[in-house]
Protein: Putative membrane protein SpoIIM required for sporulation
Amino acid sequence: MREVYFIKQNKEKWLGIEQVIQGKIKKNPDDLSSLYINLINDLSFAQTYYPKSNTTVYLNHLSSQIFQKIYKTKRVEENRILYFFKTEVPLLVYQYRRYLLYAFLFFTLFTLIGVLSAIYDKEFATIILGEGYVNETIENIKKGNAVGVYQKGSTWGSTIGIIFNNIGVGAKLYLYGIFAGIGTLYALLSNSVMLGSFQYFFYDYGALKDSARGIWLHGVFEIFSMVVEAMCGLILGASILFPRTFSRFNSFKMGFKDSFKIFLSTIPFTVCAGIIEGYVTRHALKMPLILNLVIIFGSLAIIGFYYFVYPSIVHKKINNQINDAVL
Structure:
């Protein structure tokens, strides 16, 4: 069948599904399941005969949206907050998983730019980090205390300040996405370049190992969350730039709703990072190395599993449940 005829034959049905997704047409769970199965059949046909077509991309997006709609109609018997983190967010992360990949690629590129800039310009770290901070840290390194800057102030006071600062940084990474995603990339560039130059600064002064023992205790949760927040900003920007068949406003509403939920999921990790930085990082060099490694790699395993592995597990589980229900 020619693609033009395939589109003409199914156009009204697909537009009707868009209306359901937007909430303009109400359907019961059984009808939604029938629509989903029908749409999956169309998607399978398009993937077979028009694999590189925009029609296939469109149907893939539409099936993801109706999938979300179906599952949200199911009665949620568990605690709403638990459901949010256990099911809703992972499904959204799976749906927008390519944006997480984009965010990590940009983060890696921008961090390398920071490292290379610090290598070829010895004053770059001073410009980025500030002369006062650099001089103080150099003195601490000479004293054998590379993480001395984290030992200033009270534990609870530092923790509260750090948490609010990190949430503010994350909010900028996310909300700047409203400028077609360019604002998010600029914010990510600024923070990533700072990280790259920061790490090379310690390497240049022979204190990379000691700094890593301290910085990455809280840095795993903080930096990973920052990348996920950038992912949310890119989703927001893409909803404006690429509305597909939706109106730009409706596309923005859907993009904002989905990305905001993912953004909220980073808050617990940001709070944990602040607590670790305020209470634990100051003791980094006095702790047994094995304890540092357990916290660092344990944190990486937790947040990496939640955003990279768990979404696929949840998607597969829910998909099997829906297929069993409609067969």
Remarks:
- The mean pLDDT is 87.
